[in-house]
Each structure stands twice: as C-alpha cells, then as structure tokens.
Specification:
503 residues; 8-stranded parallel β-barrel; globular; Immunoglobulin-like; TIM Barrel
C-alpha cells in the first residue's frame, strides 16, 4: 500500500450556492414494507396510539430529514386519492399493477400528514397524471389546501382535519416517460397534461410549487428530447424538473461502480443545459431548477423480488441490504448533488424505510444500514453554503470515463461558524494525504473527524450486528500553519469539521 497525495482548493468568497435543505429529503411509497411495518405498525412495541413507529421516527429525526415525497413512485399512477381518506373501515382495498400487490389504504393521506408532523418532515405530495388528470388534480389540492366552504375542503374537515394541510410542493405524476408506467405518455402528451394540471392547481393555491417529470434515467431512449418537449409545453406552470437515477454493482466491478457518480454529474449538467436552452428559446427570465427526487443504489433485491407471489399485502419487496461499497457511492452521490446546489434544490434518497432504504425494521426494532451514515452526516453537517471545491488528484479509467480517486465538497456555515469537508476515497488500496489551505479561516481548528471504512467492501449491518459498518471518530486531520492536513484511508467516507478556537 502506498500513500498518495492530493490537494483541495477553496476560496471562502467563491460560492456555488446556499444549500436548500430540501436536498436532504427522502421518499416513502406505498411499496413493500415502507409504510406497513416501516413507519406504521399498530401493536409494535414502539408504536404510539396511532400505530406510528417511534423507533423509525427517532432515526428519521436523527438524520434531520426535511421533507418526504409521498405516495409514489410507480404506485401513484394507479392511485385514487379518495381511497385514502375517510373512515378506515370504509376504505377499499385495490390491486396495484405497478408492484403486483394489494393496497388496503389503511394508511392514507390523513395518517401521512399526522406522521409528517411527528417526524418533523414536510410533505411533497405526488398526484396521479397516469390514469387520471386535471380534474383530480384540482380536487386533491382543494381537499388539502382550501380552508373551508367547498365540497372537498369541507370533506377534509368532516374527516377530522379542521385546518388545511397546506402542502406546498407537488409532483405532477411520476416517470411518465417509462413504458412500465400506468398511463405512459409521449412527451407532448405529458407536457400538456402537466401544464394544465399545474395551471389549475395554482389557480386553487398560487403559493404552491410544482415538479414536472423529467426522464426516468439518463439511459432512456427519449432522454433530452423528452425534457425539451415537456419544458416547451409546461415551462410557465412548473418550478422544477425531476431526475431519477439508480446504480448497481451487478458485474462486481467496484471501481466502475464507485465511478457511477461521474454519470450522475453528467446527467445533472445535461438537464441543466436543456432547461437553459428552453429558457433562451422562450425568452424567459425565470430559471427552472432541478428536483433529483429519486436517487440511490438499487440492485441487491432484484432476484429475490422475482419470487414474490402476486396480489399479496406489503411483502418484503425491494429490500436491498447495503454494504460498505454502497455507502461509499451514496457518499459520492451526495457530494455530487451538493456540488450542483445552485440548480439542484430538491433531492430525495429513495427510499426511507425498508424499501431500498437507509433504515431497516423488524417486529422488534429498527437499525441503520451502511448508507445511513453518509446521508445522515451530510444532512446534519452540510447546511450552509457550498464553496467551489477544486480537487487536484489522480483519476482512473472507468466505463463512465475518467473518475477521480477523491470526491470532495466543502460547506461553509457562517451561522454556526463551521467549515465542513466531505470526502470519499475511492482508491481500494491506497491512503491519501490531502492538504487544504485554510488561511482565510484564521483561527479555525479541528473540532470533528469522522470516518467510515473497513477491509471488507461487502460488509453489511444486520439486526443481529447493527454496528458492523459505522462511522467513528478518528484523529486523521489537523491544522498546522494555515494548512488543513487530512488522511483519507483507502475505500473510505470522511467528514472533517473546523470551527473557530474557543476564546
């Protein structure tokens, strides 16, 4: 093993953007055990009187998750929102063709809003633009956001919510470019549907923001032309365009897998370019920003999911058990999102509990998966302003092109007077000694240095051994003569925090 060198360069006045806290959001879909047994399980030992699991809420609050997208996902394109309100005993059970299961609607809109308050998260609500349309968009926002005096607002009050839910962020459908999607549309068809839904929803409540569907992933054959067409149709009625990306190590090629963040970076740059092209084409002054509202590693559970029988209730579905290398990629993906904080204002780690999730549960408890740590630490320590972060480091060849061995981003939080370095060392063999000039932050000293690493890239956390892979405090950094000197071990996620010396 060799020790290699790298340098990080920053300037406290050269900023990318203030971080929108919604970049640390997540996602709960009516899928598998995300809702049932994940956040809602009456009778479970930690569940409250409403059946909401406190052990899950504790981990969500620990991660300071600011917002949760709900109720889908592919599920939403066949969802009838009216099924999810009113007396639980009167709600219908329906088949969900998206995931070949039965949805009981025992947990619905009111229950989600109640859970949101207890978990201290804001809602990001998705409407069905697959098998439904403009009228239903109008009805659901009337139900949620109009105070009283109309049919649906008074129905909400009758169902127990006197005050409006006041949901401010709305997804106009989900992955409508995908042939797998119920109600799949062409770009022109979807663009018109999104424009009309967004227009009528803003007529009901002008204070809301809307997210239109971009491509389901960058490899879609319609990518780029889809975005351009949708934006030309709906530009005036939308505020954000969505991106989705999942990555997997199916070929067991860890260097290529860890280079997936290079692909994510190019995806973001491409979509920003398309948004700005349509802005110029339409002579607009208003900018469309991005909502990367599904991102994660997803591949471990694919074979197991093929064995699940159809039309059962909340099976163990999409339950990826994450390992160390997954955590490293999630760290790099989080860094990539932050480097684009000027345009990526919303991002949702998909999903939150049990289903491709940082949190897992059983009947007896909840525990942190490996990917929880970079997500939680970015969320709790990455508030502030992203500095333009230049990393001088060697690269390696990957299927996505040249990939730097070190991914890093630096966050300045003037309110809390902290400077935080997030970094991933993707070199599987070699440690890196990294320096960063911090003379502009005179008087700042090391206050925290956290490390997640291990010898076994395939190591996982389980209920029996929940701390096998976790972040620990180390002493791999120091400030000397205006230089921050850091050691990033091979295959590691690193957090280094500075603050003014106590006076």
């Amino acid at each position: 093993m060799a020790i290699k060198k790298a340098r990080i360069s920053i300037d406290r006045d050269i900023e990318i953007s203030k971080v929108d806290e919604r970049i640390y959001s997540s996602f709960i879909e009516h899928l598998g055990r995300a809702v049932y047994e994940g956040i809602y399980q009456p009778g479970q030992k930690s569940a409250d009187a409403d059946g909401l699991r406190q052990d899950t809420i504790d981990l969500i609050r620990e991660a300071r998750v600011p917002m949760v997208r709900y109720p889908g996902g592919n599920f939403v394109s066949g969802f009838l929102w009216e099924d999810s309100v009113g007396p639980v005993s009167e709600r219908p059970s329906r088949i969900d063709p998206a995931w070949m299961v039965v949805e009981t609607n025992e947990f619905g809109l009111h229950e989600f809003m109640n859970w949101s308050k207890k978990a201290d998260v804001k809602p990001m609500y998705a409407i069905n633009l697959g098998t439904r349309g403009t009228l239903d968009a109008r009805n659901v926002i009337e139900y949620c956001n109009v105070k009283q005096g109309s049919y649906y607002s008074d129905l909400r009050r009758k169902n127990g919510a006197e005050e409006p839910f006041d949901i401010k962020l709305w997804c106009l459908g989900n992955e409508m470019d995908g042939p797998w999607q119920m109600g799949h549309k062409t770009a022109a068809e979807y663009g018109r549907a999104a424009a009309e839904a967004g227009r009528i929803m803003k007529m009901v409540d002008p204070s809301i923001e809307t997210v239109a569907c971009g491509s389901a992933f960058s490899g879609m054959p319609t990518f780029a032309s889809w975005e351009a067409t949708v934006l030309q149709e709906a530009y005036d009625q939308i505020d954000y365009l969505s991106l989705h990306s999942y990555y997997g190590n199916r070929d067991d090629n860890t260097p290529d897998f860890l280079a997936s963040s290079v692909d994510m970076d190019e995806f973001i740059k491409s979509v920003v370019s398309i948004c700005d092209y349509v802005k110029a084409l339409k002579r607009e002054k208003r900018e469309i920003n991005l909502s990367f509202d599904e991102w994660n590693v997803w591949y471990h559970s694919n074979e197991a999911d093929k064995q699940i029988p159809h039309w059962v209730k909340h099976p163990h579905q999409l339950e990826d058990i994450y390992n160390l290398e997954d955590a490293l990629l999630v760290g790099s993906m989080m860094i990539t999102l932050l480097r684009h904080a000027d345009r990526v204002k919303i991002a949702c780690l998909a999903q939150l509990v049990n289903v491709i999730a940082p949190i897992m549960t059983s009947d007896t408890g909840a525990w942190r998966q490996t990917i929880y740590y970079p997500y939680m630490q970015a969320s709790t320590m990455g508030r502030g302003t992203v500095l333009n972060t230049a990393v001088k480091v060697d690269c390696y060849e990957s299927k996505y092109g040249d990939a730097p061995f070190i991914d890093s981003v630096v966050i300045k939080d003037e309110e809390r007077e902290t400077l935080t370095v997030f970094a991933v060392n993707k070199d599987l063999e070699n440690d890196y000694e990294v320096t960063m000039d911090v003379r502009q932050f005179e008087g700042y000293q090391l206050v925290e240095n956290l490390l997640l690493t291990g010898e076994d890239l395939k190591a996982v956390n389980t209920e029996e051994d929940p701390d096998r892979v976790k972040s620990v405090a180390v002493s791999n950094a120091c400030v000397e003569d205006g230089s921050l000197k850091m050691r990033f071990p091979a295959r590691s996620w690193n957090v280094v925090r500075l603050a003014p010396a106590a006076k």
